[in-house]
Design brief:
Blueprint (H helix, E strand, L loop, with lengths): L3 H7 L5 H12 L5 H23 L5 H20 L12 E6 L1 H5 L10 E7 H8 L2 E9 L5 E8 L11 E2 H6 L7 H6 L5 E8 L3 E7 L7 H6 L9 E4 L9 E7 L12 E4 L5 E4 L10 H18 L1 H8 L8 H22 L4
Parallel strand pairs: 3-6
Antiparallel strand pairs: 1-2, 2-5, 3-4, 6-7, 6-11, 7-9, 8-9, 10-11
């Protein structure tokens, strides 16, 4: 299986004794044997779904991956929510499709336009149990050394405001898809390589200004900056020495986990990926977004198999298939890793 080390860590939660001891340590209370069995069963089932997906034909692989995501999510909810039991977990998904029949009536070329909204169910319970956080960092202006920290964002308004999210909204903000997004959709991606510098009472974000990239207006309108924040062009960054569009975000405490930074993650070298806010101002962690992508692909395979098969058979309108293949790989590799990080297994 991919991420063998992560699965070795998660396999600990298939052990009765380990789960019992972990729960006692985290909650200062014990679990009865039935509750322990409910938790270990979720992690066993999740591992087996992911293992089956790895060996399955691509015609069913996304559905098996989603069932694996669902099982790991349910196990995590039971571990982190003392009030929950297997019997009290909602049987519904917590996400629902919005007129996929009508959207896909326009052909498989419309697959990126399919929409979802939040509802009562597992995803809702998962968001309640797992903070909307992202591990990121910045370079120090004084030492030019990189430091890591965690930012905890508010619960997305998407969970309660009835808004919709498209598959395109998610993939456009996913740096794991790479540059192929722009080549296929002919639209700018909504993640941007940037340099983040920690000042004494502020963060300086420098978005790299590539000759064929987005202009200043994208960085002004794509983020819910604090009132009065300005975006300006510069000839060089502090470290990367390239033209950029710079924003300075003032903060009271650089070590606080609630600083008002856009969603970002370290991408290697000097750069971070900084992700545009969603249309309603939401910022979703990578773990949340991976869950949502998995749900969409799983339900597409489950309820619209003819459309999925058409995408696989290189029929007209199949341009999005490379994006979907990359998204499947991201779910398979990153969701188990994300769960192990949530459970503090480093």
């Amino acid at each position: 299986m991919q991420n063998r080390k992560e699965w070795e860590r998660l396999s600990l939660f298939e052990s009765h004794d380990f789960v019992e001891a972990w729960y006692q340590q985290k909650n200062v209370r014990s679990l009865n044997s039935q509750r322990v069995k409910e938790i270990t069963s979720c992690f066993t089932q999740g591992r087996e779904y992911f293992a089956s997906a790895q060996n399955a034909a691509i015609s069913v692989r996304p559905l098996l991956l989603y069932y694996g995501v669902l099982a790991l999510a349910r196990g995590t909810i039971l571990l982190r929510n003392k009030a929950k039991s297997e019997a009290s977990l909602k049987p519904s998904h917590g996400l629902e499709s919005v007129d996929w029949q009508g959207t896909l009536a326009g052909g498989i070329k419309k697959v990126l336009d399919i929409q979802i909204r939040a509802s009562s169910g597992t995803f809702f319970e998962f968001v309640d149990a797992v903070d909307n956080y992202q591990d990121t960092g910045s370079w120090s202006a004084q030492t030019l050394r990189r430091g890591q920290f965690r930012v905890v964002y508010p619960k997305p308004k998407f969970m309660t405001d009835g808004s919709v999210c498209t598959l395109d909204d998610l993939l456009a903000r996913d740096h794991r898809i790479g540059l192929v997004y722009k080549e296929i959709t002919h639209k700018e991606a909504k993640w941007h390589p940037a340099e983040i510098i920690g000042l004494e009472k502020a963060f300086e974000i420098s978005f790299f200004a590539f000759s064929n990239g987005p202009g200043k207006e994208v960085f002004e309108s794509g983020f819910c900056w604090p009132e009065g924040t300005q975006v300006f062009a510069r000839d060089t960054c502090r470290r990367s020495r390239v033209p950029n569009f710079c924003v300075t975000v003032e903060v009271n405490d650089l070590s606080a986990d609630t600083v008002n930074l856009p969603m970002s993650s370290y991408s290697g070298g000097d750069a971070f990926n900084v992700i545009e806010d969603f249309r309603n101002g939401d910022r979703f962690s990578q773990l949340y977004r991976t869950y949502m992508i998995s749900y969409i692909l799983g339900m597409l395979v489950r309820y619209f198999p003819s459309k999925w098969t058409a995408l696989l058979r290189n029929e007209k309108g199949d341009a999005a298939m490379p994006l979907l293949a990359s998204a499947m790989n991201a779910v398979e590799s990153d969701f188990p890793k994300g769960i192990s990080e949530v459970l503090v297994l480093r």
